[in-house]
Amino acid sequence: MTATKITIPDELLPTDGRFGAGPARVRPAQVEALTEAASTVLGTSHRQAPVKSLVARIRSGLAELFSLPEGYEVVLGNGGSTVFWDVAAFGLVRSRAAHATFGEFGQKFAKATDTAPHLESSLVLAADPGTSAIPSPEALAAAGVVSSPAEAASGALAADVYAWPHNETSTGVATSIARPAGIADDALVVVDATSGAGGLNVDIAETDVYYFAPQKNMGSDGGLWVALMSPRAIARAQEIKDSGRFIPASLDLVTAIENSRKDQTYNTPAVATLLLLAEQIEWINGNGGLAWASERTRETSGLVYDWADAAEAAHPYVAEPADRSSVVATVDFDDSIDAAAVASVLRANGVVDVEPYRKLGRNQLRIATFVSVDPADVRALLACLDFVVDALK
After folding, report:
1. How many domains is the chain partitioned into structurally?
2. Assigned domain for 38 exists
3. Between β-strands 209-212 and 73-78, what pairing exists: parallel, antiparallel or unpaired?
4. Is residue 339 part of a domain?
């Protein structure tokens, strides 16, 4: 049977067929809240109480969700993670950054600091896609990036920022977040949490900047960055600003910090994005917070990995179970199954966005199991996969 003629029985289909890794599904309750705010908040000044109270909801909700340590602040700015990489290059890196890259998004931040003309060349610990890495001085030395751990921590090639993704969206690899051993006392740990925040457990005290755009677990749209910043990171931003370094106004981190303390952003924000984000944070907190969310994503992703382990023609792409993400599950198929054809059949039947990351180039499906994805929908998706794979044989 050709792919275009395969019809999945209605009783197998999930209630909600959206499984994309970004933009991710938005819950109907969030859209209802948006409709209710159409004549009271949308289209009003971001310098006045209705929108400022919305930003305050986000900041207090995130402080609760992540159990922010004393002195940490929630900072917001316009633009997504791509913009924040430039913000960090101008406002957080004193002279050199050390990165771990094991997928597309870690590489992009590394490129941003490595090509910045005012910074020294970055130290980059590159691992194969499907594996993980942490840019500790010891790991950098073991990989030959530096001659010794001391050189990365305090020598001629010393890094003052250590950066890596909590979750690599392109490959479905997650990392454990802990301050690397042996780094300088004033070095910053800067973690890209875009696809992990709100779906993976984390101890924020192990980081100095835990930043994300809200279009994944946070169930919102792009165009906004959020950073949970330690006192050390806030002091670093002020130090660099006071040094006289040229910083474009739109990328000025100190300006973002000062505006966030007033519950606003420097430029006019997308108010609908703020509202969707506030509703999602409160939904997660109301259900049990980060512990509840991370357990839910472990359950849903576990269903996918168990299915792939048991399948004849499929297996989890990430070989090491400890590296497998709970929020983005990647599954490889052998040559007997055309994953693109499977995704095409699913899309024709209303089950969408399970295609692999475009630059990875694998015979693969990528299934988002963010916190908004109901476990029942994942079970239904797997039943659909069984049906489609059998039909394509």
Report:
1. 2
2. no
3. unpaired
4. yes
